[in-house]
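If you are new to this repository, start here. Below is one unmodified record pulled from the training split, so you can see the exact layout before writing a loader.
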Amino acid sequence: MLYDLARLVFFSLDAETAHGLGIAALKQVGRVLPAATPLAGRPTTVMGIDFPNRVGLAAGLDKNGEAIDGLARLGFGFIEIGTITPRPQPGNPRPRLFRLPDVHGIINRMGFNNAGVDALLDNVRAAKFKGVLGINIGKNADTPMERAVDDYLAGFEKVYPHASYVTVNISSPNTKNLRALQGASELDALLAPLKAAQQRLADAHGRYVPLALKIAPDLDDAQIANIADALRRHRIDGVIATNTTIARDKVQGLPHGDEAGGLSGAPVRVASTRVIRALAGTLAGEVPIIGVGGIFNGRDAQEKIDAGASLVQFYSGLIYRGPALVRECVATIG
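And here is the target side for that same chain:
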């Protein structure tokens, strides 16, 4: 009920203003209240990490790690922050975030707007949170594609000591040509040096931090098979399926439905689950899957698990449903 009232206020504002106010409020909550504990669920071990429950926050909501402690109070079993880039960048011009309430969707073309990796790490160090923290890394928009690996390596090196796992985001549609990194040769050229860096950093820091790859929902079966093969060959620890979609078939004719950017929320549920199921069939348990996309109730979360995911995450569902969604999904899947 309380969130229903808050949502009326937030939805009366433009989406990005509301987002900023929400992060500011969560930041204050986390600052004044003691450290939170996750909701009791079904503990599970994925990528060598012990998760207290299987429900997590997807990257994108808290890009700079400003509200980690406030978000932890919602009961998540794990929190993923970012996407962060090596250098600060403003992202794309506003407006760049749009709600599609008729279909419980969101379109964003934020463009990895963030304060840079050093600012994020300052926030991580200041947080009271001691749970499972994923950090999602990307490339700066002005870094040439032929040097994209340099940005990923720089980000990986900096966040490694502070992350429970690190996600490599190559699937946002809002950085020019970024999704080209999902191609077979491009993916090999990215994953090989990251895997080498992971081993070097594990030796240097005395602990192994898993690497996960976040992929798009707009992939055909051949592309999914190629990605699965790369994940196995490079011994990547996990795959997050999926990011936002560039498809618009489910939002045609709706206000803002033709805006450029990535579409998330309920309209991406079916496509996301299709990719999860195809990955699970190809990987046969060799690489764990984190399922993301269109989770708005416990049934949606269970659908991802049934398709082959070991864990789930959401972001858009939290905007529309609020903290009740965390509780419902934990009660359903643990």
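Two things worth knowing about this chain: Residues 126 and 193 are 31 Å apart (CA to CA). The first strand starts at residue 44 and ends at 46.
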